[in-house]
Amino acid sequence: MTNKQQAALEQASAGPGLFFGMELLGWYRSVKRDLPWRENRDPYRVWVSEIMLQQTRVDTVIPYYKRFMDKFPTIRHLAEAPEEEVLKCWEGLGYYSRARNLQAGAQQVVSEYGGSVPDDKTAVAALKGVGPYTAGAIMSIAFNRPEPAVDGNVMRVLSRYFCLEDDIAKPSVRTGIERIAAALIPEGAAGDFNQGIMELGALICTPKSPGCLICPVMAECAGRLAGRELELPVKTKAKPPRPELRLAALVEGAGPHAGAILVRQRPESGLLARMWELPHVLAPGGGSAGPVAAGSAAAAGPVRGRRRSTAALDAPAAAGEAAASPGANREARMALMGRALAEEARLLIRPRRWWRDAEHVFSHIRWDLQVYLADFGFVLKDAASAGGTQAGAYTGLAAEQPAAYMAGSGETAEAAQRETAASYDHAGLPLASAALVDRLPEGYRWIRQDDMKEMAFPNVFLRLLNDYWEQRESGCLPDEAEAE
DNA sequence: AAACCGTGGCA
DNA sequence: TTGCCAAGGTT
Questions:
Q1: Of A32, A115, A313, A340, which has the highest C-beta tally within 10 A?
Q2: Do the record's keywords include Iron (predicted)?
Protein backbone atom coordinates (compact mmCIF):
# COMPACT_ATOMS: atom_id res chain seq x y z
CA MET A 1 0.00 0.00 0.00
CA THR A 2 1.08 3.55 -0.59
CA ASN A 3 1.45 5.94 2.32
CA LYS A 4 -1.79 7.67 1.46
CA GLN A 5 -3.63 4.37 1.29
CA GLN A 6 -2.17 3.42 4.64
CA ALA A 7 -3.36 6.66 6.19
CA ALA A 8 -6.80 6.16 4.63
CA LEU A 9 -6.98 2.65 6.02
CA GLU A 10 -6.31 3.95 9.52
CA GLN A 11 -8.99 6.61 9.15
CA ALA A 12 -11.43 4.08 7.77
CA SER A 13 -11.02 1.99 10.92
CA ALA A 14 -11.65 5.00 13.14
CA GLY A 15 -13.98 8.00 13.37
CA PRO A 16 -14.19 9.12 9.73
CA GLY A 17 -14.85 5.53 8.73
CA LEU A 18 -17.73 5.20 11.12
CA PHE A 19 -19.17 8.48 9.90
CA PHE A 20 -18.93 7.36 6.29
CA GLY A 21 -20.61 4.01 6.89
CA MET A 22 -23.49 5.35 8.93
CA GLU A 23 -24.26 8.33 6.70
CA LEU A 24 -24.04 6.18 3.59
CA LEU A 25 -26.36 3.51 4.97
CA GLY A 26 -28.96 6.07 5.98
CA TRP A 27 -28.81 7.73 2.62
CA TYR A 28 -28.97 4.49 0.63
CA ARG A 29 -31.91 3.12 2.54
CA SER A 30 -33.88 6.27 1.90
CA VAL A 31 -33.16 6.79 -1.79
CA LYS A 32 -32.24 3.42 -3.26
CA ARG A 33 -33.70 2.70 -6.66
CA ASP A 34 -36.32 0.05 -7.17
CA LEU A 35 -34.47 -2.33 -9.49
CA PRO A 36 -35.64 -5.76 -10.64
CA TRP A 37 -32.69 -7.56 -9.01
CA ARG A 38 -33.50 -5.94 -5.68
CA GLU A 39 -36.82 -7.74 -5.30
CA ASN A 40 -35.14 -10.29 -3.07
CA ARG A 41 -31.70 -11.68 -2.20
CA ASP A 42 -31.86 -14.88 -4.20
CA PRO A 43 -28.15 -15.58 -4.86
CA TYR A 44 -28.88 -16.66 -8.44
CA ARG A 45 -30.68 -13.40 -9.18
CA VAL A 46 -27.88 -11.39 -7.59
CA TRP A 47 -25.33 -13.36 -9.57
CA VAL A 48 -27.02 -12.82 -12.91
CA SER A 49 -27.45 -9.12 -12.24
CA GLU A 50 -23.82 -8.66 -11.26
CA ILE A 51 -22.57 -10.36 -14.39
CA MET A 52 -24.84 -8.28 -16.60
CA LEU A 53 -23.84 -5.10 -14.81
CA GLN A 54 -20.15 -5.62 -15.54
CA GLN A 55 -19.12 -2.62 -17.63
CA THR A 56 -22.77 -2.06 -18.47
CA ARG A 57 -25.22 0.62 -17.35
CA VAL A 58 -28.25 -0.09 -15.20
CA ASP A 59 -30.71 1.23 -17.77
CA THR A 60 -29.23 -1.02 -20.43
CA VAL A 61 -29.34 -4.08 -18.23
CA ILE A 62 -32.92 -3.86 -16.94
CA PRO A 63 -34.76 -5.21 -20.01
CA TYR A 64 -32.11 -7.90 -20.56
CA TYR A 65 -32.33 -8.96 -16.95
CA LYS A 66 -36.09 -9.29 -17.05
CA ARG A 67 -36.01 -11.33 -20.23
CA PHE A 68 -33.20 -13.51 -18.94
CA MET A 69 -34.86 -14.32 -15.62
CA ASP A 70 -38.10 -14.99 -17.43
CA LYS A 71 -36.43 -17.49 -19.73
CA PHE A 72 -34.02 -18.99 -17.19
CA PRO A 73 -35.77 -18.61 -13.81
CA THR A 74 -33.48 -21.00 -11.94
CA ILE A 75 -29.88 -22.11 -12.05
CA ARG A 76 -31.01 -25.45 -13.37
CA HIS A 77 -32.96 -23.87 -16.23
CA LEU A 78 -29.85 -21.98 -17.23
CA ALA A 79 -27.53 -24.95 -16.83
CA GLU A 80 -29.69 -27.12 -19.06
CA ALA A 81 -30.48 -24.58 -21.78
CA PRO A 82 -29.02 -24.80 -25.29
CA GLU A 83 -26.10 -22.44 -25.53
CA GLU A 84 -27.55 -20.60 -28.54
CA GLU A 85 -30.58 -19.64 -26.52
CA VAL A 86 -28.41 -18.12 -23.83
CA LEU A 87 -26.38 -16.26 -26.41
CA LYS A 88 -29.52 -15.03 -28.15
CA CYS A 89 -30.76 -13.72 -24.82
CA TRP A 90 -27.48 -11.79 -24.50
CA GLU A 91 -27.63 -10.40 -28.04
CA GLY A 92 -26.76 -6.70 -28.03
CA LEU A 93 -25.50 -6.64 -24.46
CA GLY A 94 -21.85 -7.13 -25.40
CA TYR A 95 -18.94 -9.01 -23.83
CA TYR A 96 -20.51 -12.28 -24.87
CA SER A 97 -18.06 -14.49 -22.99
CA ARG A 98 -20.02 -13.37 -19.94
CA ALA A 99 -22.97 -15.40 -21.18
CA ARG A 100 -20.93 -18.52 -21.76
CA ASN A 101 -19.14 -18.20 -18.43
CA LEU A 102 -22.40 -17.63 -16.60
CA GLN A 103 -23.88 -20.78 -18.05
CA ALA A 104 -20.70 -22.71 -17.28
CA GLY A 105 -20.90 -21.38 -13.73
CA ALA A 106 -24.50 -22.52 -13.45
CA GLN A 107 -23.47 -25.98 -14.59
CA GLN A 108 -20.70 -25.91 -11.99
CA VAL A 109 -23.19 -25.05 -9.25
CA VAL A 110 -25.52 -27.85 -10.33
CA SER A 111 -22.82 -30.49 -10.48
CA GLU A 112 -20.77 -29.45 -7.48
CA TYR A 113 -23.28 -27.84 -5.11
CA GLY A 114 -26.60 -29.44 -5.95
CA GLY A 115 -27.93 -26.36 -7.70
CA SER A 116 -27.55 -23.81 -4.90
CA VAL A 117 -24.93 -21.07 -4.84
CA PRO A 118 -22.64 -21.92 -1.91
CA ASP A 119 -22.34 -19.45 0.97
CA ASP A 120 -18.58 -19.60 0.64
CA LYS A 121 -16.35 -16.94 -0.79
CA THR A 122 -13.68 -19.25 -2.12
CA ALA A 123 -16.26 -21.41 -3.87
CA VAL A 124 -18.08 -18.42 -5.36
CA ALA A 125 -14.84 -16.84 -6.52
CA ALA A 126 -13.98 -20.08 -8.32
CA LEU A 127 -17.05 -19.87 -10.56
CA LYS A 128 -16.42 -19.04 -14.21
CA GLY A 129 -16.64 -15.35 -14.91
CA VAL A 130 -16.63 -14.39 -11.23
CA GLY A 131 -13.68 -12.20 -10.30
CA PRO A 132 -12.84 -10.27 -7.13
CA TYR A 133 -15.56 -7.66 -7.54
CA THR A 134 -18.38 -10.06 -8.41
CA ALA A 135 -17.42 -12.51 -5.66
CA GLY A 136 -17.57 -9.73 -3.11
CA ALA A 137 -20.87 -8.46 -4.50
CA ILE A 138 -22.53 -11.88 -4.35
CA MET A 139 -21.20 -12.66 -0.87
CA SER A 140 -22.26 -9.33 0.57
CA ILE A 141 -25.58 -8.78 -1.21
CA ALA A 142 -26.89 -12.35 -1.18
CA PHE A 143 -25.35 -13.57 2.10
CA ASN A 144 -24.54 -10.30 3.87
CA ARG A 145 -20.95 -11.39 4.36
CA PRO A 146 -18.51 -8.55 5.13
CA GLU A 147 -16.60 -8.73 1.84
CA PRO A 148 -15.61 -5.65 -0.16
CA ALA A 149 -16.95 -5.25 -3.70
CA VAL A 150 -14.71 -2.70 -5.38
CA ASP A 151 -15.70 -1.55 -8.84
CA GLY A 152 -15.11 1.69 -10.70
CA ASN A 153 -17.69 3.51 -8.60
CA VAL A 154 -16.09 2.50 -5.34
CA MET A 155 -12.62 3.44 -6.53
CA ARG A 156 -13.89 6.86 -7.58
CA VAL A 157 -15.80 7.50 -4.35
CA LEU A 158 -12.98 6.43 -2.08
CA SER A 159 -10.30 8.19 -4.13
CA ARG A 160 -12.21 11.39 -3.56
CA TYR A 161 -13.25 10.76 0.03
CA PHE A 162 -9.69 10.01 1.13
CA CYS A 163 -8.04 12.19 -1.53
CA LEU A 164 -6.07 9.25 -2.94
CA GLU A 165 -3.94 10.08 -5.95
CA ASP A 166 -3.10 6.58 -7.05
CA ASP A 167 -3.84 5.72 -10.67
CA ILE A 168 -6.97 3.58 -10.49
CA ALA A 169 -6.19 2.19 -13.92
CA LYS A 170 -3.45 0.11 -12.32
CA PRO A 171 -4.63 -3.32 -11.17
CA SER A 172 -2.49 -3.10 -8.05
CA VAL A 173 -4.38 -0.05 -6.79
CA ARG A 174 -7.65 -1.94 -6.56
CA THR A 175 -6.17 -4.25 -3.92
CA GLY A 176 -5.32 -1.35 -1.65
CA ILE A 177 -8.75 0.19 -2.06
CA GLU A 178 -10.31 -3.18 -1.24
CA ARG A 179 -8.67 -3.13 2.18
CA ILE A 180 -9.97 0.37 2.81
CA ALA A 181 -13.46 -0.59 1.64
CA ALA A 182 -13.46 -3.66 3.85
CA ALA A 183 -12.59 -1.55 6.88
CA LEU A 184 -15.53 0.74 6.16
CA ILE A 185 -18.24 -1.93 6.18
CA PRO A 186 -20.59 -1.34 9.14
CA GLU A 187 -21.30 -4.33 11.33
CA GLY A 188 -24.00 -6.53 9.85
CA ALA A 189 -24.74 -4.28 6.88
CA ALA A 190 -22.32 -5.41 4.18
CA GLY A 191 -24.97 -5.82 1.47
CA ASP A 192 -26.52 -2.42 1.88
CA PHE A 193 -23.14 -0.77 2.36
CA ASN A 194 -21.69 -2.17 -0.85
CA GLN A 195 -24.81 -1.36 -2.84
CA GLY A 196 -24.94 2.03 -1.19
CA ILE A 197 -21.43 3.08 -2.12
CA MET A 198 -22.02 2.00 -5.70
CA GLU A 199 -25.34 3.82 -5.73
CA LEU A 200 -23.55 6.91 -4.46
CA GLY A 201 -21.03 6.66 -7.27
CA ALA A 202 -23.76 6.19 -9.84
CA LEU A 203 -26.10 8.95 -8.66
CA ILE A 204 -24.06 11.57 -6.76
CA CYS A 205 -20.32 11.06 -6.94
CA THR A 206 -20.35 10.86 -10.73
CA PRO A 207 -17.22 11.13 -12.87
CA LYS A 208 -17.78 14.54 -14.45
CA SER A 209 -20.01 16.70 -12.31
CA PRO A 210 -20.34 15.24 -8.82
CA GLY A 211 -23.27 16.48 -6.76
CA CYS A 212 -21.24 17.31 -3.70
CA LEU A 213 -23.90 19.68 -2.37
CA ILE A 214 -26.34 16.83 -1.88
CA CYS A 215 -23.77 14.19 -0.93
CA PRO A 216 -24.40 12.49 2.41
CA VAL A 217 -20.67 12.35 3.25
CA MET A 218 -19.57 15.73 1.93
CA ALA A 219 -18.73 17.01 5.41
CA GLU A 220 -15.79 14.62 5.74
CA CYS A 221 -14.78 14.22 2.10
CA ALA A 222 -11.09 15.08 1.88
CA GLY A 223 -11.20 15.50 -1.90
CA ARG A 224 -14.09 17.93 -1.71
CA LEU A 225 -12.60 19.81 1.27
CA ALA A 226 -9.42 20.26 -0.77
CA GLY A 227 -11.47 21.43 -3.73
CA ARG A 228 -10.01 18.64 -5.81
CA GLU A 229 -13.06 16.50 -6.47
CA LEU A 230 -12.85 17.15 -10.19
CA GLU A 231 -9.21 16.06 -10.40
CA LEU A 232 -9.92 12.74 -8.77
CA PRO A 233 -9.66 9.93 -9.33
CA VAL A 234 -6.42 9.86 -11.31
CA LYS A 235 -6.80 7.48 -14.22
CA THR A 236 -4.56 7.01 -17.23
CA LYS A 237 -6.34 7.15 -20.54
CA ALA A 238 -7.01 3.98 -22.47
CA LYS A 239 -5.40 3.48 -25.84
CA PRO A 240 -7.73 4.36 -28.69
CA PRO A 241 -8.99 1.39 -30.68
CA ARG A 242 -7.03 0.57 -33.80
CA PRO A 243 -8.99 1.05 -37.01
CA GLU A 244 -9.65 -1.84 -39.37
CA LEU A 245 -11.14 -1.50 -42.81
CA ARG A 246 -13.43 -4.45 -43.45
CA LEU A 247 -15.24 -5.33 -46.66
CA ALA A 248 -18.53 -7.11 -46.14
CA ALA A 249 -20.64 -8.97 -48.66
CA LEU A 250 -24.40 -8.91 -48.61
CA VAL A 251 -24.89 -11.92 -50.85
CA GLU A 252 -28.36 -12.33 -52.25
CA GLY A 253 -29.48 -15.80 -53.14
CA ALA A 254 -31.11 -16.86 -56.38
CA GLY A 255 -33.06 -19.85 -57.60
CA PRO A 256 -34.09 -21.91 -54.59
CA HIS A 257 -32.47 -19.32 -52.34
CA ALA A 258 -34.14 -16.30 -53.84
CA GLY A 259 -34.96 -13.83 -51.09
CA ALA A 260 -32.38 -15.24 -48.73
CA ILE A 261 -28.98 -13.84 -47.85
CA LEU A 262 -25.74 -15.50 -46.86
CA VAL A 263 -24.41 -15.35 -43.31
CA ARG A 264 -21.75 -17.21 -41.38
CA GLN A 265 -21.01 -18.12 -37.78
CA ARG A 266 -17.86 -16.86 -36.09
CA PRO A 267 -15.30 -19.20 -34.46
CA GLU A 268 -15.78 -20.68 -30.99
CA SER A 269 -13.40 -18.30 -29.28
CA GLY A 270 -12.20 -14.76 -29.56
CA LEU A 271 -14.04 -11.68 -30.71
CA LEU A 272 -17.82 -12.13 -30.92
CA ALA A 273 -17.38 -15.85 -30.45
CA ARG A 274 -20.03 -18.00 -32.13
CA MET A 275 -22.12 -15.07 -33.23
CA TRP A 276 -23.49 -14.74 -36.76
CA GLU A 277 -22.39 -12.12 -39.23
CA LEU A 278 -22.20 -11.11 -42.85
CA PRO A 279 -19.13 -12.55 -44.57
CA HIS A 280 -16.37 -9.97 -44.52
CA VAL A 281 -12.64 -9.68 -45.00
CA LEU A 282 -9.94 -7.46 -43.57
CA ALA A 283 -8.60 -5.11 -46.20
CA PRO A 284 -4.81 -5.31 -46.41
CA GLY A 285 -3.02 -2.46 -44.75
CA GLY A 286 -5.73 -2.09 -42.15
CA GLY A 287 -7.91 0.93 -41.89
CA SER A 288 -5.26 3.57 -41.54
CA ALA A 289 -2.56 2.48 -43.91
CA GLY A 290 -3.63 4.60 -46.82
CA PRO A 291 -4.52 3.20 -50.22
CA VAL A 292 -5.80 -0.31 -50.06
CA ALA A 293 -4.46 -2.73 -52.61
CA ALA A 294 -3.23 0.04 -54.82
CA GLY A 295 -2.02 -2.45 -57.40
CA SER A 296 -5.45 -3.90 -57.78
CA ALA A 297 -6.92 -0.47 -58.05
CA ALA A 298 -4.67 0.25 -60.99
CA ALA A 299 -5.68 -2.99 -62.62
CA ALA A 300 -9.32 -2.51 -62.00
CA GLY A 301 -9.87 -0.60 -65.17
CA PRO A 302 -12.42 2.12 -65.72
CA VAL A 303 -15.10 2.56 -63.14
CA ARG A 304 -18.61 1.91 -64.14
CA GLY A 305 -20.72 4.82 -65.09
CA ARG A 306 -23.26 4.46 -62.37
CA ARG A 307 -22.43 6.79 -59.55
CA ARG A 308 -23.98 7.73 -56.28
CA SER A 309 -25.75 11.02 -56.23
CA THR A 310 -24.10 12.34 -53.09
CA ALA A 311 -20.39 12.75 -52.82
CA ALA A 312 -20.53 12.21 -49.09
CA LEU A 313 -21.65 8.67 -49.60
CA ASP A 314 -18.28 7.85 -50.97
CA ALA A 315 -16.38 9.51 -48.19
CA PRO A 316 -13.62 7.22 -46.98
CA ALA A 317 -14.58 5.43 -43.83
CA ALA A 318 -11.04 4.55 -42.99
CA ALA A 319 -9.02 7.01 -41.01
CA GLY A 320 -6.02 8.29 -42.83
CA GLU A 321 -7.36 7.55 -46.24
CA ALA A 322 -6.90 10.46 -48.61
CA ALA A 323 -10.06 12.50 -48.82
CA ALA A 324 -9.55 12.81 -52.54
CA SER A 325 -9.58 9.06 -52.93
CA PRO A 326 -11.70 8.41 -56.00
CA GLY A 327 -14.64 6.08 -56.24
CA ALA A 328 -12.44 3.63 -58.09
CA ASN A 329 -11.46 2.34 -54.68
CA ARG A 330 -14.91 0.85 -54.39
CA GLU A 331 -14.31 -1.23 -57.49
CA ALA A 332 -10.91 -2.29 -56.32
CA ARG A 333 -12.25 -3.27 -52.97
CA MET A 334 -15.09 -5.27 -54.45
CA ALA A 335 -12.53 -7.23 -56.42
CA LEU A 336 -10.38 -7.63 -53.36
CA MET A 337 -13.31 -8.87 -51.33
CA GLY A 338 -14.30 -11.36 -54.02
CA ARG A 339 -10.82 -12.81 -54.24
CA ALA A 340 -10.34 -12.94 -50.47
CA LEU A 341 -13.61 -14.77 -49.90
CA ALA A 342 -12.65 -17.23 -52.59
CA GLU A 343 -9.33 -17.81 -50.88
CA GLU A 344 -10.60 -17.97 -47.34
CA ALA A 345 -13.91 -19.76 -47.79
CA ARG A 346 -13.77 -21.03 -51.39
CA LEU A 347 -16.88 -18.98 -51.82
CA LEU A 348 -17.27 -17.41 -55.24
CA ILE A 349 -19.48 -14.36 -55.42
CA ARG A 350 -19.94 -11.48 -57.80
CA PRO A 351 -19.82 -8.16 -55.92
CA ARG A 352 -22.28 -5.87 -57.64
CA ARG A 353 -22.10 -2.47 -56.03
CA TRP A 354 -21.46 -0.56 -52.85
CA TRP A 355 -24.46 -0.40 -50.55
CA ARG A 356 -23.45 1.50 -47.41
CA ASP A 357 -20.81 2.01 -44.74
CA ALA A 358 -21.10 1.12 -41.08
CA GLU A 359 -18.93 1.52 -38.03
CA HIS A 360 -18.57 -0.83 -35.09
CA VAL A 361 -16.42 0.14 -32.14
CA PHE A 362 -15.02 -2.41 -29.73
CA SER A 363 -12.83 -1.56 -26.76
CA HIS A 364 -9.67 -2.23 -28.73
CA ILE A 365 -10.70 -2.29 -32.40
CA ARG A 366 -12.76 -0.05 -34.63
CA TRP A 367 -14.33 -1.73 -37.63
CA ASP A 368 -14.90 0.53 -40.58
CA LEU A 369 -17.24 -1.60 -42.62
CA GLN A 370 -18.01 -1.15 -46.29
CA VAL A 371 -20.94 -3.29 -47.31
CA TYR A 372 -21.31 -4.43 -50.91
CA LEU A 373 -24.29 -6.12 -52.49
CA ALA A 374 -23.27 -9.27 -54.28
CA ASP A 375 -24.67 -12.18 -56.26
CA PHE A 376 -23.93 -15.74 -55.34
CA GLY A 377 -21.71 -17.56 -57.79
CA PHE A 378 -20.81 -20.99 -56.56
CA VAL A 379 -18.64 -22.82 -54.09
CA LEU A 380 -15.35 -24.33 -55.02
CA LYS A 381 -14.43 -27.78 -53.89
CA ASP A 382 -12.06 -27.68 -51.01
CA ALA A 383 -8.39 -28.20 -51.62
CA ALA A 384 -8.48 -31.87 -50.75
CA SER A 385 -11.26 -32.91 -53.07
CA ALA A 386 -10.29 -30.44 -55.78
CA GLY A 387 -7.09 -32.38 -56.23
CA GLY A 388 -4.64 -29.58 -56.70
CA THR A 389 -6.55 -27.34 -59.04
CA GLN A 390 -6.35 -24.70 -56.39
CA ALA A 391 -2.85 -23.60 -57.07
CA GLY A 392 -3.58 -21.72 -60.24
CA ALA A 393 -7.07 -20.79 -59.35
CA TYR A 394 -6.52 -17.37 -57.89
CA THR A 395 -3.67 -16.16 -59.98
CA GLY A 396 -5.65 -16.03 -63.14
CA LEU A 397 -5.35 -12.32 -63.69
CA ALA A 398 -3.83 -13.07 -67.06
CA ALA A 399 -6.32 -15.77 -67.71
CA GLU A 400 -5.95 -17.72 -70.87
CA GLN A 401 -9.62 -18.58 -71.00
CA PRO A 402 -12.20 -16.22 -72.32
CA ALA A 403 -14.38 -14.74 -69.69
CA ALA A 404 -17.29 -16.99 -69.06
CA TYR A 405 -18.65 -15.86 -65.79
CA MET A 406 -21.20 -18.21 -64.46
CA ALA A 407 -24.17 -16.20 -63.42
CA GLY A 408 -25.18 -16.75 -59.86
CA SER A 409 -28.09 -19.03 -59.46
CA GLY A 410 -28.86 -21.80 -57.12
CA GLU A 411 -29.06 -24.17 -60.01
CA THR A 412 -25.50 -23.43 -60.95
CA ALA A 413 -24.21 -24.45 -57.56
CA GLU A 414 -26.37 -27.47 -57.50
CA ALA A 415 -25.17 -28.59 -60.89
CA ALA A 416 -22.11 -29.46 -58.85
CA GLN A 417 -19.13 -31.63 -59.47
CA ARG A 418 -17.76 -30.03 -62.58
CA GLU A 419 -14.12 -30.84 -62.75
CA THR A 420 -12.64 -27.79 -64.35
CA ALA A 421 -10.09 -25.29 -63.21
CA ALA A 422 -11.19 -21.86 -62.09
CA SER A 423 -9.60 -18.53 -62.65
CA TYR A 424 -10.57 -14.95 -62.07
CA ASP A 425 -10.46 -11.73 -63.94
CA HIS A 426 -9.06 -8.53 -62.56
CA ALA A 427 -12.37 -7.65 -60.94
CA GLY A 428 -12.29 -10.80 -58.88
CA LEU A 429 -14.94 -12.51 -60.96
CA PRO A 430 -14.55 -16.19 -61.71
CA LEU A 431 -13.62 -17.04 -65.28
CA ALA A 432 -14.70 -20.24 -66.96
CA SER A 433 -16.06 -22.99 -64.83
CA ALA A 434 -14.59 -24.45 -61.70
CA ALA A 435 -14.75 -27.47 -59.53
CA LEU A 436 -18.06 -27.02 -57.79
CA VAL A 437 -19.79 -28.43 -54.80
CA ASP A 438 -23.42 -28.14 -53.89
CA ARG A 439 -22.99 -27.23 -50.28
CA LEU A 440 -21.96 -24.02 -48.56
CA PRO A 441 -18.63 -23.70 -46.79
CA GLU A 442 -18.48 -24.73 -43.15
CA GLY A 443 -20.34 -22.29 -40.92
CA TYR A 444 -22.22 -20.58 -43.77
CA ARG A 445 -25.96 -20.66 -44.33
CA TRP A 446 -28.78 -18.94 -46.15
CA ILE A 447 -31.24 -17.12 -43.95
CA ARG A 448 -34.47 -15.22 -44.25
CA GLN A 449 -35.65 -12.56 -41.85
CA ASP A 450 -37.53 -15.09 -39.76
CA ASP A 451 -34.40 -17.14 -39.12
CA MET A 452 -32.82 -14.27 -37.23
CA LYS A 453 -35.14 -14.90 -34.30
CA GLU A 454 -33.01 -17.87 -33.33
CA MET A 455 -29.57 -16.57 -34.23
CA ALA A 456 -27.45 -14.10 -32.27
CA PHE A 457 -25.92 -11.24 -34.25
CA PRO A 458 -23.66 -8.41 -33.10
CA ASN A 459 -25.51 -5.12 -33.19
CA VAL A 460 -23.83 -3.76 -36.28
CA PHE A 461 -24.99 -6.72 -38.38
CA LEU A 462 -28.37 -6.71 -36.73
CA ARG A 463 -28.86 -3.13 -37.88
CA LEU A 464 -27.52 -3.80 -41.36
CA LEU A 465 -29.72 -6.83 -41.86
CA ASN A 466 -32.85 -5.21 -40.49
CA ASP A 467 -32.30 -2.19 -42.70
CA TYR A 468 -31.76 -4.48 -45.64
CA TRP A 469 -34.98 -6.44 -45.16
CA GLU A 470 -36.84 -3.21 -44.68
CA GLN A 471 -35.40 -1.53 -47.73
CA ARG A 472 -35.99 -4.51 -49.93
CA GLU A 473 -39.55 -4.85 -48.78
CA SER A 474 -40.26 -1.24 -49.56
CA GLY A 475 -38.36 -1.44 -52.85
CA CYS A 476 -35.79 1.08 -51.70
CA LEU A 477 -32.63 -0.83 -52.45
CA PRO A 478 -30.46 1.19 -54.83
CA ASP A 479 -30.22 -1.41 -57.55
CA GLU A 480 -33.89 -2.01 -57.72
CA ALA A 481 -34.56 1.68 -57.92
CA GLU A 482 -32.05 2.20 -60.69
CA ALA A 483 -32.77 -0.95 -62.60
CA GLU A 484 -36.01 0.43 -63.94
C1' DA B 1 1.37 -5.57 -16.86
C1' DA B 2 -1.06 -5.30 -20.79
C1' DA B 3 -4.05 -6.93 -24.18
C1' DC B 4 -8.30 -8.82 -25.19
C1' DC B 5 -13.37 -8.69 -24.80
C1' DG B 6 -19.19 -4.79 -26.80
C1' DT B 7 -22.19 -1.38 -26.52
C1' DG B 8 -24.71 2.92 -25.75
C1' DG B 9 -25.31 7.37 -23.57
C1' DC B 10 -23.84 11.70 -22.94
C1' DA B 11 -21.45 16.34 -22.78
C1' DT C 1 -18.83 15.33 -33.38
C1' DT C 2 -15.64 13.01 -30.73
C1' DG C 3 -14.06 11.27 -26.54
C1' DC C 4 -15.13 9.31 -22.21
C1' DC C 5 -16.53 5.64 -19.63
C1' DA C 6 -19.89 2.17 -17.12
C1' DA C 7 -21.91 -2.54 -11.07
C1' DG C 8 -14.82 -6.35 -14.75
C1' DG C 9 -12.83 -10.92 -16.01
C1' DT C 10 -9.51 -13.68 -18.39
C1' DT C 11 -5.17 -14.62 -20.38
A1: A340
A2: yes
The predicted structure's pLDDT at residue A46: 97
Residue A257's CATH number: 3.90.79.10
Of A160, A192, A225, which marks where a domain is finished?
A225
Contact A137, A149 (CB under 8 A): yes
The tens digit of pLDDT for each residue in A275-312 reads 999 999 999 875 543 333 322 322 222 222 222 222 22
Q: How far is the CA of A97 from the C1' of C10 (A)?
A: 10
State, as a whole number of angstroms, the distance between the CA of A348 and the C1' of C3: 41
> Could you give phi then psi for residue A244, rounded to 5 degrees?
-135, 125
**How many folded domains does chain A comprise?**
2
Q: A64 with A109, same domain? A: yes
- End-to-end, the C-alpha distance of chain A in Å comes to 73
Q: Check whether A327 has a pLDDT greater than 70.
A: no
List the domain range (segments joined by +) for residue A194: 3-225
For strand C, which residues in window 228-257 of chain A come within 7 Å by CB? 235, 237-238, 240
Confidence of residue A474 (pLDDT cuts 50, 70, 90): confident
Q: Can you give the distance from the CA of residue A403 to the C1' of nucleotide B11 in angstroms?
A: 57
Residue A44: pLDDT over 50: yes
- How far is Cα A88 from Cα A99, in angstroms, rounded to an integer? 10
User: Rounded CA gap, A405 and A348, in Å?
Assistant: 11
Question: Does one domain contain both A112 and A17?
Answer: yes
